[in-house]
Amino acid sequence: MTTTVAAEGRSGAPASGQRTGSEATPPPGGAGFDPSSPATVVCRRRWRPVLRGGLPRTVPSRLRLLRAVVLVTAAGLVGVLVTGGVSASGSWADIRERSAPQVTSATGLYFTLNDMDAQLANQLMMGDTASLSSLRAQAADIYGQRRGQAGGYLRDLAEAAKGDAAAERTVASAISDLGAYEEHAVRALVLGEQSHRPAGQADPKAVAEYTLATQLMRTRLLPEADRLVTTNNAAFEHTYADATGTQSAIRVALLVTGLLMLALLAALQLYLAARFHRVINPGAAAATVLVLTVLVSGFVQISGQQDHLRAARRDAFDSVVALTRARAVSYDANADESRYLLDRAGTTAHEQDFLAKSQRLLHLDGATIGTYDTDLASALRAYKADHARLDFTGFFGDEFRNITFPGERAAAERVLTAYQVYQRDDRRIRALASAGKVAEAIEYCTSHTTGDSNYAFDAYDKALLKLITINTTAFDRTSSDGAGNALTMPVGLAGGVMAAAGLMLIGLRPRLAEFR
Fold this sequence. Notes:
By secondary structure, this protein is mainly alpha-helical. The chain has one domain (59-343, 403-513). Helix content is 79%, strand content 0%. The protein is built from 14 helices and no strands. α3 runs antiparallel to α4, α7 packs antiparallel against α13 and α7 runs antiparallel to α14. The longest helix is centred in the middle third of the chain and has 73 residues, at 204-276. The two termini are 67 Å apart. Residues 1-26 have low confidence and may be disordered. Keywords: Membrane, Transmembrane, Transmembrane helix. The chain crosses the membrane at residues 65-88, 252-272, 284-304, 487-508.
């Protein structure tokens, strides 16, 4: 029995009714598709790596991939530069327009409150003595000025405190307490005027009202003002820390993206040299040089920003805060002399208050009111022999540990010399009062004649103001320099990166054109 082949004969011809493979499966490209055509081959070469997850296999596809990666990296580098510039510019605006002015307002309030109380004590202390009438009128005038300044500072601080519940409560309490203080002050002045008593013999009722006023000042108003100084200074410190931290992060990001772009440009240059047998591609080479310049310039710019931030905050403003607080405490100590002469029943307490404030200004371990002068002289001799030896702390200790700017050391030394004279004059006031010469002590305390106590205090205050001015001027200069190029230079460098990307594109164009 023989077998019949039904599907296909020996010759391979299809049997009747059987479709061929080409007929059974339509061509992928439809009618007329030619899988061997040049266009189809190029398409397969382009898309096969993508479909298989591999790297491009043709020269133009590799060049296009490198070009795309370089452009993405360039965009990242531009973003880093612009972000750094915007951040630095915003930080400087915050420091110059909000943080520093708020601290200045708080220290100004602390100072004016202290001087208000001092001038109130002076008016009551001088009494109705004719020879002191001009000084009494001067004290009244200064009291009025300080009162207005305190109100202005409180308005500024109230505006700045919006949104900060704790600061708002502190400012509101200070405003309320200042009103209560002024009520006691007015009653004390009226009672003093009605009594018509000479210097050193103030009316007990007036002294009692003044005692209530000054207690309110020392137990509520001054702590509130000091708290505002601390709060606003801490906010400035937070702004400074954020700014320096952001600039450090920007520097790291600049390093990473800048080096990555340089590496990509170098790889592109090497590939072009190997594939096209050319030593250098001018466009890629120029782009590499430009990116390297941007990277170095960006590092220098960020380092400069951090230097300006440190100089403005640490070198300048830290001293401004310490010295302005020292000036306020100095006026409070000067008021303690007036309180000592006005309130003879509380001389011991007022003397200890004066010593405590002297120690805040320049702290000497173990010093008493009787030994402070000799201890101070000893500490200054040690300092003059060796500037690195500072046997004192306090506000002036902070300043002498932060001497930075030209002329600052000499100015600080003049402050201490004047402070030493003022401290010695204080001992004479107490000696006169202890000897029963209260009227003479009052005249010596309030007189601006050369050699008298207020003359010495004014000389000390002027020296202190000059030292403060050195640091405020340095702060203004460094903050202005930092803000001046905070945004413009990064934007310019970003433009350099975009120019480098353009040069790279120009350099690649002729090579890619060879494959069209």
